[in-house]
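ok, trying the design again with the full structure, not the truncated one.
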């Protein structure tokens, strides 16, 4: 397996009221990675990832939460980008309604092979139900693309559903039930997700 030595730079701005259960604010983070033979690497690529979260209170403890994530990568000598450097999407914390990391191009065995570009967009309406229990309605969109040139906001998989959030002494417990809106032939008709903390 070829090794990838890299130079990485990142920036984060966090203006959320609470990093685990924000009631307002925003968060932006970006990462840029360069891997070149001059850095002692067997690989040569440029990879970037940007994410932005926004939390807007609507009154009555109702919150509109949104997120956008974009990933882009390219190689310098037209090599194939190895799997662990590609982007993957789909699942509990990206586009719900689809299996984990199952969006985008397919390999020769029919499984998701990842890509050089990624877009994920999320919207959640979070509202109180009773005491420590909250409800969530959500819509997720996104896809993974073979190349940066294939990137298109007109070619997106869409998932939607409902969820519950329970505050406990060990943290926020998450239950989501989602369906793929534009279901592909091999997608499940619906999927249940359990987790700790918010989806984003």
């Amino acid at each position: 397996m070829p090794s990838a030595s890299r130079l990485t730079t990142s920036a984060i701005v966090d203006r959320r009221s609470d990093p685990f259960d924000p009631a307002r604010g925003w968060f932006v983070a970006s990462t840029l990675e360069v891997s070149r033979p001059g850095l002692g690497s067997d690989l040569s690529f440029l990879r970037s990832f940007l994410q932005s979260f926004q939390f807007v209170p609507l009154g009555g403890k109702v919150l509109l939460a949104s997120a956008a994530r974009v990933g882009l990568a390219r190689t310098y000598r037209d090599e194939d980008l190895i799997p662990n450097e590609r982007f993957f999407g789909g699942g509990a914390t990206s586009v719900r309604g689809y299996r984990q990391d199952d969006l985008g191009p397919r390999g020769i065995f029919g499984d998701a092979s990842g890509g050089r570009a990624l877009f994920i967009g999320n919207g959640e309406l979070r509202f109180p139900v009773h005491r420590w229990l909250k409800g969530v309605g959500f819509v997720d969109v996104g896809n993974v693309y073979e190349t940066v040139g294939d990137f298109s906001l007109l070619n997106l998989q869409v998932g939607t559903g409902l969820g519950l959030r329970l505050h406990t002494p060990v943290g926020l417990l998450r239950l989501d039930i989602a369906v793929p809106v534009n279901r592909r032939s091999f997608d499940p008709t619906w999927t249940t997700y359990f987790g700790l903390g918010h989806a984003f």
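Keeping the full-length input from now on. The longest strand covers residues 45-59.
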